[in-house]
Design a protein that fits this description.
The chain is an all-alpha fold. The chain has 5 helices and no strands.
Length: 141
Amino acid sequence: MSSVAHGRRGEVRSRLLGIGFGVATQILFGYAVWRLFWFLHDGVGVNSSHSYWRDAALSLQFAVVHSMLLWPANRARLKRILPEALYGCLFCAATCVTLLALISNWQASERVVWQLHGAGATAMRIGLYASWCALLYSLNL
């Protein structure tokens, strides 16, 4: 087999892997958005063995991974290895995985800091739905 034919086959394989990674990332993103909506809508059950340290660690793992991937020096290093489109997929996939880890392991505290009732609760719920409509609209752009 000629090196030209072998090179084209490698390009096709790379392109198919990239497309597969992109499709998988879109599916993961859709799932993460769906889980996030219900997490914010309904919250999680109260856990009597709640640990603020655990929730802090979950928040940090999300923030650190998200920030490290956005840090210009790390971004430049990754773009030398990955094409621009795959960097976007990697960033989205890492963000979704860390967000899903946070959502899946979050523990609610028994302590209530504030709770709305009546018109305040209705206004907050409308605000939640409006923010999701804005998010979906912006994704559509």
